[in-house]
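We emphasize that the prediction below concerns an isolated chain of 49 residues; any contacts that depend on oligomerization or on bound cofactors are therefore not represented. The input was used exactly as deposited, without trimming of termini.
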Amino acid sequence: MDEFRKNIHSVKERAISGEFLYNSFIGPDTTNRVDKNKDVNIHNIIIRG
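Result of the prediction step, given as a token string:
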């Protein structure tokens, strides 16, 4: 889990800096207010149409 957390925070910082990754969309608030030492919570959403 530690390696995953480091990787996901790296991807987040790259996306915030303007790099287009994994169809990312950064909203209007680009401040980085996330503690890198806390666990990452992932919530899945399935959209069907």
